[in-house]
Amino acid sequence: MGRKIRQIMDGEVALPFRTKDAGILSFITPIQQKAFFVSGILFVLLSVLYVYSVIASVMHVAAREELTFEATRLSSEVARLEAEYLSRTEGITESFARERGYTSISSRSFVERTSSVTFNNAR
After folding, report:
1. Which comes out higher in pLDDT, residue 48 or 13?
2. Does the pTM exceed 0.85?
3. CB 32 within 8 A of CB 42
4. Which of 120, 4, 1 is CA-nearest to residue 67?
5. Among 14, 23, 64, 89, which is least packed, fewest CB within 10 Å?
6. Residues 6+ apart with CB under 8 A from 14
7. What CA–CA distance (Å, rounded) separates 75 from 101?
């Protein structure tokens, strides 16, 4: 029984398995190499953009919560000042004003608050 000799085909001699440039990219065409590198760069850029967007969203939510808290605080401060104003105006009468030198005016103008800023409808 003899050993069967295997014939080497033409393409087997030229395969670059043990050469310096052996690798997955050595089997693709230059256009495919460029497409692979462009795809890799695009993937990295989109990943960075995604991470930035997530971080920016978290920061905006935190800033919104802070602004909502500040708006609530300012609204309560305005309510406190309005209550203080109303309590102080009870003691002011027309005779008290005349004693202090104030006189009557012919035309009056009033200030009215029509709306307030809220974040509840912004969602």
Report:
1. 48
2. no
3. no
4. 120
5. 14
6. none
7. 35
